Amino acid sequence: DTEVTQTPKHLVMGMTNKKSLKCEQHMGHRAMYWYKQKAKKPPELMFVYSYEKLSINESVPSRFSPECPNSSLLNLHLHALQPEDSALYLCASSQDHTSVLLEQYFGPGTRLTVT
Amino acid sequence: AQSVTQLGSHVSVSEGALVLLRCNYSSSVPPYLFWYVQYPNQGLQLLLKYTSAATLVKGINGFEAEFKKSETSFHLTKPSAHMSDAAEYFCAVSDSSPNYGQNFVFGPGTRLSVLP
Prior knowledge:
The structure holds two protein chains of two kinds.
Chain A: E1 4-7, E2 10-13, E3 18-25, E4 31-37, E5 44-50, E6 53-57, E7 64-70, E8 73-79, E9 87-94, E10 105-106, E11 110-114
Chain B: E1 3-5, E2 10-14, E3 19-21, E4 24-26, E5 32-38, E6 44-50, E7 56-58, E8 64-68, E9 73-78, E10 87-97, E11 101-106, E12 110-115
Parallel strand pairs in B: 2-12
Antiparallel strand pairs in B: 1-4, 3-9, 5-6, 5-10, 7-8, 8-9, 10-11, 10-12
């Protein structure tokens, strides 16, 4: 099973709402990632979890709050977002964050619209 | 820091024609290079990767790429385009630092259109 799943597929939220994005993988990978992708742009790294610990935070605003409950799950909690946060949010995983040889496996993404 | 450029933000080919998508990298160390494809409203799927074992790398869906150190290139090719190849293609280089771990640097992407 080389699948990364993400829920929901689409999310529309107001600027005062609180919502969460979920990501799951069952490949035994120990690194998980959140990316943000704007239209016609490459993905931009937001957070990296390695062995369930936050390893990298790419200076992401605090209105985005990641959580890794266990090695298979990754959440992204959203609060007080801005319209410019509307984007495709991609989750990815890899066997190990320390190896440059390893590919990352991407989920299908959550299309977020902030109104 | 490593970087990736992709010449041509949009490439159009006729069905059955050769596909050539260009990727050039800058790196002071041997690079590890990847090609990903993204179909509309989907995530990224790995096509192939170069990790210094062989300069000609074969991937899925009939794609292949050749690593040319002298040209700092890793161009993606497919002999005969199919309508289903229409998608966005990203070249990426993977590097690392002691405190940072693996870092994927993506190119800007090339949108491939396949004309009937």
